[in-house]
Hints:
heterodimer; A: mainly beta; globular; B: mainly beta; 7-stranded mixed β-sheet; 4-stranded antiparallel β-sheet
Amino acid sequence: EVQLQQSGTLLARPGASVKMSCKASGYSFTSYWMHWVKQRPGQGLEWIGAIYPGNSDTSYNQKFKGKAKLTAVTSASTAYMELSSLTNEDSAVYYCTRWDYGSSYAMDYWGQGTSVTVSS
Amino acid sequence: DIQMNQSPSSLSASLGDTITITCHASQNINVWLNWYQQKPGNIPKLLIYKASNLHTGVPSRFSGSGSGTGFTLTISSLQPEDIATYYCQQGQSYPWTFGGGTKLEIK
């Protein structure tokens, strides 16, 4: 069974950085792109970027370049996203989601989300 | 960036009704259009991929159609468990973009 287990709630000060994780299981971690999606309270979905753990290739939404950094540790089947220079606008739930390349070409499995609150 | 315009932004319908949500892309995205359902307090879930294909386990009352720039999601025989916000998403080119969402309520 495919599962994406995300790390817990984060509380951070403005200007700080946070790093969250997404541990994958039930499939070959290195063979699927992992995408990250942002959802602010009461708002819609916003695509941040993606990483291919097989070779650490990344693609970012221009809006999040310099804000988000995506990495992956294949030995741990875990993807990470670090957010830097936090502001109130970064308070949101962040989802990792697997992209099913080769079948649906859609984000078929989602983590439970990591809530980030930025507050002084 | 490809803009995805979704309408309506909210919709109230009765149980048993058939409803349609539309999504318009600012440029040709062929059939690279996916629909997601997000129930209150829950994570998004894939409903329909490549415009018209039902994801595993999705009830057959859901259907999708369209290609190019215009797409629709239809829910027939509306059920209480269909209360959710629905999002379209284009996978034609980066950055992937979502529609603004349609919040479905039951009358």
